Amino acid sequence: MGDIVQCEALEPREDNFKIQCAFVKGHRGDHRFPDFGQDLTPEIRLRNALDVALNENEDWERKYAELLDANTQTELDLIGKRNEVYRERDACVALMAKLALKLGYPAGLGKHPAGDESWDRDWLNIVYIEIPHPSGKPAQLSWHIHDSELPMFAFLPSYSEPWDGHTTAEKYQHMAEFCGDKA
Question: What is the pTM of this model?
Fold first, then answer.
């Protein structure tokens, strides 16, 4: 049984007694209970109302658990779809890196700084590809890849150049320019 986190205003209303409670996990309910007797003190009426609320809360917890299970399955389905999209993207990145090496462009596997706590530990590997840029300086492209995708990139040499600070938008702009698209 969950604890009541907060109870708000009690209002006598004709033959009903109203209590508003915040239950476990932030659930908020507005409950009306029968008047448990005109001659009962407000404290006894409150205790009786809370007993009813706690019994309702047990039912709510069961319903919440069922909903959580359904939401968890939905979340797992979404994670599966996301992982599938990353596998497809990484297959394309692997192909680009292989072609870059065959054309003589630098490409390799680098590491995200280990001290950066903002990245998940499973996503610290980075594929780098350098392509020609109109400025004369090569444009660096990079993609973080999941540890589970490393076998796809086993052909890549180590890459020791630091990240040049390019944004995702700049990366795709460089790719578009390389492919002849001025957009």
Answer: 0.60
